[in-house]
Design a protein that fits this description.
two-stranded antiparallel sheet; extended
Length: 296
């Protein structure tokens, strides 16, 4: 009978236990007496202890608007500064004339008044009491209606439109800068005498120092001589000097208040004549301005 054979059957493999094995503490190693001490074990991190409170890290109170009436102090401070600036302007501008202010460039003044005697009227018209004259009424241009005496007058000419153009002295006081007084050549050293309609207290003087007329596309201001310096004189013997910039508009100069019935204008310097085919060898003044009030 044949021998029956049986296959060898391997024993079943047992699955690993899924339960984790807790780590075991390292075995205590014997330490000698000379071994350094172990560092203390750090406790677990706790955010409640390691972080600062939010309000200590980022203070949002500083971004809030100013509360209460604190803003009122800033408003009052600004108002005081504005008031102080206005007061300083009033102090430094004691003249009080309702006229245009002096140009910042092109004008200078030098007092040449004699030293007053005791009890006499000083160059500004002040008496021995020390008070300068003020006049009465509103400040106005005293050159309007005044009489002008000049060293000479150029003859009339005909303009490009065929119109006759005169250059009379009275045109310096007509308020129209397109008209002018004109005299031939260099007028240096000549004197213009202005007799006011009535005595006044003068506080500003000035003039348009050339022929400020434009017609048919031609500017006659650079084509004639321009006055660049004059000396203003008054009845009490005082005088001031004024220089002018190259611009065809009235240039005023503030002077110490002086009571006078006449004003003299002595021309001390002029420009060369105009160049080119339109150049003219004439000295011209378009307007004279004498600001003041009627004498009291």
């Amino acid at each position: 009978m044949p021998r029956s054979t049986q296959a060898a059957v391997a024993p079943p493999v047992q699955a690993a236990d899924p339960t984790p094995v807790p780590p075991t503490s390292p075995p205590d190693v014997p330490r000698g007496d000379d071994a350094p001490p172990l560092a203390p074990r750090r406790a677990a991190w706790d955010p409640r202890e390691d972080l600062l409170p939010y309000e200590e890290v980022d203070d949002t109170e500083s971004d809030l608007p100013v509360r209460g009436m604190a803003w009122l102090g800033w408003v009052l401070g600004a108002a005081l500064l504005v008031g102080l600036a206005f007061l300083l302007l009033r102090v430094f501008d004691t003249d009080g004339d309702e006229v245009a202010t002096d140009p910042a460039d092109g004008t200078t003044a030098t007092s040449q008044a004699p030293e007053p005697d005791a009890g006499s009227t000083d160059p500004g018209g002040a008496t021995d009491g020390g008070e300068a004259p003020t006049g009465v009424g509103k400040a106005r241009d005293l050159a309007r209606g005044a009489a002008f005496e000049v060293p000479g007058t150029a003859p009339p000419t005909t303009d490009f439109d065929g119109n006759l153009v005169a250059y009379e002295a009275s045109q310096m006081g007509d308020g129209n800068p397109a008209t002018a007084w004109r005299t031939a050549g260099d007028a240096t050293g000549g004197t213009i005498t202005v007799t006011l309609a009535e005595p006044g207290v003068v506080t500003r003087v000035g003039l348009v120092n050339g022929y400020a007329k434009k017609v048919a596309g031609v500017d006659w201001y650079p084509n004639n001589r321009r006055v660049v310096a004059v000396t203003w004189g008054f009845d009490d013997g005082s005088s001031v000097e004024q220089t002018f910039a190259e611009r065809p508009e009235v240039q005023r100069l503030k002077v110490p208040p002086v009571e006078t019935a006449t004003v003299t204008i002595t021309i001390t310097a002029v420009t060369p004549p105009g160049s080119g085919s339109l150049g003219r060898d004439y000295t011209a003044i378009s307007e004279v301005s004498i600001t003041g009030r009627r004498a009291g």
